[in-house]
Amino acid sequence: MPAWALWFGLISIVMLAAAFYLVLGRGVEASITRQLLKREQTIARAEVGNIILFFQRFGNSVAVLAQLSSIERRDASTVADMDIFVEQRRDSGLVGGVVLTDRDGVVQFNSNVLGTRDLGKSLADRDFFIWAKDKAKKGEYFINKPVISRLGGSEDQPVVLVASPVYQNGVFAGVVAASVKLAPLAEQFFGFMKVSDLTKAYLVDGRGDLLYSNSVPDGIGLNISELFSGEQTFSDRIKTALSASEEGQFQTKTHLAAYSPISLGAQTWLLIISSPVQEVVDLATPFYVRQAAMLILTSFTILLFGVIATKEV
């Protein structure tokens, strides 16, 4: 066999091996991408289920409180039962307090973690009071959109108010409203969600305003258009997801993200879990190193045998 033919065959084998290495590498990256997205989706689904369950249980507790005879009487026993409600939840760090209003929305009773009373303030403009006065039925509860608290142990903090109507002899007499502090709530449910140390979690409301993030705490209140002004594709994909009724995934040049809607009564939040695409490269690097080492070893072995065979020819 001519030497040139032998060398041509050897070089062809090396090139085929290199091509196989590249194709296999792409397959590994695609597999890692699918696994990361699946893990993100699983985590998002689990935590969304947990926070929905939390609000269901808390809402039912508020509704039970609103139907107690002490709440209807509005005397010393009213304060005692409201204090018990707060004390039972104090250790969680999630509840700021609970108030009872009159039929006009003015706070008549107030129990909170600070022990202050803060009476006389009007909550008549809050969505939950308007709902309770015009549409609610006994035993129902309403989850208000996040607002800045006006009183009690959560004053000036973003809270989610959960309210239930109070009736006296079948006539609307006010509202029981309990505040859930948004920051510790989100931190408890979403702060430790990690596929890796690079995982980021974003909680946005139905308008796309940021409610919580474990990576940009100073961005609370910003719209995603402002928050991701330098990442238009990522921002656009989140905007599209805001109208989704089911969970989903998407990939951009820089992000791998999974999202899941959180339906809380009349409002919907969206949880997004994102990892950088670079993480795929980082996870694939050990594979590339091993395969490259094998390719180099194989190539040198083939070339060595080629040199020996050429000399013999």
Characterise this structure:
This is Cache domain-containing protein. Residues 32-273 form the Cache domain. It comes from Candidatus Daviesbacteria bacterium RIFCSPHIGHO2_12_FULL_37_11. It is a multi-pass membrane protein. The chain is α+β, with helices and mostly antiparallel strands and 313 residues long. The protein has helices at 3-66, 69-73, 76-87, 127-134, 182-190, 224-227, 232-241, 278-312, and strands at residues 95-101, 107-112, 142-143, 147-148, 158-168, 171-181, 200-204, 210-213, 248-251, 255-264, 267-276. Strands 1, 2, 3, 4, 5 and 6 form a 6-stranded antiparallel beta sheet that branches. It has a 5-stranded antiparallel beta sheet with strand order 8-7-11-10-9, sandwiched between helices. Helix 1 packs antiparallel against helix 8. The chain starts with a helix and ends with a helix.
Number of strands: 11
Rg (CA only) = 30 Å
Choose one word for the global shape. Answer: elongated
**How many structural domains can be distinguished in the coordinates?**
2
Task: Spell out the CATH superfamily of the largest domain.
Answer: PAS domain
**In the CATH hierarchy, what is the class of the largest domain?**
Alpha Beta
Counted by DSSP, the helix tally is 8
Low-pLDDT windows of residues: none
CATH architecture of the largest domain: 2-Layer Sandwich
Give average pLDDT, whole number.
83
* Helix fraction bin: 40-55%
Transmembrane segments: 6-24, 256-275, 287-309
Subcellular location: Cell membrane
Protein name: Cache domain-containing protein
GO cellular component, one term: plasma membrane
